[in-house]
Amino acid sequence: xxxxxxxxxxxxxxxxxxxxxxxxxxxxxxxxxxxxxxxxxxxxxxxxxxxxxxxxxxxxxxxxxxxxxxxxxxxxxxxxxxxxxxxxxxxxxxxxxxxxxxxxxxxxxxxxxxxxxxxxxxxxxxxxxxxxxxxxxxxxxxxxxxxxxxxxxxxxxxxxxxxxxxxxxxxxxxxxxxxxxxxxxxxxxxxxxxxxxxxxxxxxxxxxxxxxxxxxxxxxxxxxxxxxxxxxxxxxxxxxxxxxxxxxxxxxxxxxxxxxxxxxxxxxxxxxxxxxxxxxxxxxxxxxxx
Amino acid sequence: xxxxxxxxxxxxxxxxxxxxxxxxxxxxxxxxxxxxxxxxxxxxxxxxxxxxxxxxxxxxxxxxxxxxxxxxxxxxxxxxxxxxxxxxxxxxxxxxxxxxxxxxxxxxxxxxxxxxxxxxxxxxxxxxxxxxxxxxxxxxxxxxxxxxxxxxxxxxxxxxxxxxxxxxxxxxxxxxxxxxxxxxxxxxxxxxxxxxxxxxxxxxxxxxxxxxxxxxxxxxxxxxxxxxxxxxxxxxxxxxxxxxxxxxxxxxxxxxxxxxxxxxxxxxxxxxxxxxxxxxxxxxxxxxxxxxxxxxxxxxxxxxxxxxxxxxxxxxxxxxxxxxxxxxxxxxxxxxxxxxxxxxxxxxxxxxxxxxxxxxxxxxx
Lengths: 290, 365
Fold this sequence. Notes:
The complex is a heterodimer of chains A (290) and B (365).
Chain A: H1 2-31, H2 38-56, H3 64-87, H4 92-114, E1 130-131, E2 139-140, H5 141-163, H6 165-175, H7 177-182, H8 187-212, H9 220-234, H10 239-259, H11 264-278
Antiparallel strand pairs in A: 1-2
Helix pairs in contact in A: 1-5, 1-8, 1-9, 1-10, 2-3, 2-4, 2-8, 2-9, 3-4, 3-8, 5-6, 5-8, 5-10, 6-8, 9-10, 9-11, 10-11
Chain B: H1 4-7, H2 10-17, E1 19-22, H3 31-43, H4 45-48, H5 51-76, H6 85-100, H7 105-127, H8 132-151, E2 162-163, H9 172-199, H10 201-211, H11 213-218, H12 223-249, E3 251-252, H13 254-257, H14 261-273, H15 279-295, H16 300-316, H17 320-329, E4 339-342
Antiparallel strand pairs in B: 1-4, 2-3
């Protein structure tokens, strides 16, 4: 029964990893951007919620109504300015250094403004409420909500990418930018849209993280490696893959922790390396990595 | 060659004959004595500066060593690693383990380096299955895995680490001097290996692969072997740097020797100075420490400046400071590429074609 509980907890935390990895997966899959500032952007979302949501008198659970649009707009602007300037250099290292620089700037600007104290988003009873199917298994309400949001967001985006005109355009640009330009697509605008969607999901992940645990200016990098692992396990270019990757990682970590608490993260790494060794393009890869 | 049609015009034929292929646009024979003089000067530094400055120089040499190795990996062999801290940490732990077993910590430094190079071989088999962004993440995960495995071994201190035994018996000044000379030796050997490697046949293969991988393969270049050698050499250098870290800090702690912060510093230093040039990491390291010494008291603002410099240089000065300078000056301290150069008889080439000569090492991508 404790093992079943480990698997259930793994799926729940995996949902959070997948939600966290969604924006990373999109930027990586569409633009080939390795965004080292991804975790820090999620932390910004937490602080934006702390400042703005109380002024709207909305309950914190609905904070996403305020933060997500701001991040979507910010994502579009970021892509059309700094990221596009970096991509124009044609060297993948440029964007790596730029996002690395943004990560340092973000962390230290937040430190300067908010001190290094941890903060969390107050969601009242939701944080303590849980479903208890047996005396060993406890499913926290907020974790379940985050898992459902992850499934809806990643599944919804995957459907959007495969079914809608916008999604088709994004895939076209991701597959062959020059050919897409030849048929009249403004790839810069499409990249902007993709970045807007990616940053919107980063906002959701940041809020989820603030509701489940605490966040602090430098806590962004903690989840970044897990998010990268989820993306690579699932395979670049597939958001379903990222969802499965997040859950595989979460379950591996919880089973590892069940064996010995010190093995939690190690177990996740070993699964990642095993996937790399036997299926180096991930479980659901649809195309070559950028 | 895109210049082929030009060669059909009579005046161009003369121009074409007026060129030779060489290593450097400027004579560089005097550079070896200069470099040797500089090394001798640096060797006497402990007698000239305070102990605090000496240990600062040790940190400079450690950062320069790992940046030079990362530059070899990313700048010349196209492998962008975020996981060189794996070998830094393993090198540090090799010293700790050797010292626990009664070995002299300083004599373990070369052994630690070789151990890291050997460990890099099986790791390369795994991570070489990936390319580009996947490779970067895979190396990061390998480094994190190494940290977690080491942290779980209690006999070498587990997660809290241990102090390196066998160093307390030395007098403070002798300990400081030996640490300094060891780090100077490591950085000089690292630069020498990099220089000689790039001037060897392997360097030619790497340049060919960087410019046109398919073409290089078709011409018979053993691309995988070349990459593997570079990966092992980089592990060798990072292992030595990690070993130095262990002796200079007197203790080894997993969270600090396996810190991803090393990768951040390496990337900053190399790209600021200019990736794909041996001089780049040297310039970058000097700038990094100059910024640190002058601005560190401003805390967060210092790092905000560092981050801004990184973004600005990445976008507007993608060749880095040295890469940009060397294009203008057509001068290299470490000439490793091949150039199309005017014949020596021509003192000052006045033909417009001469302006188009560019270092082979400076091509894009």
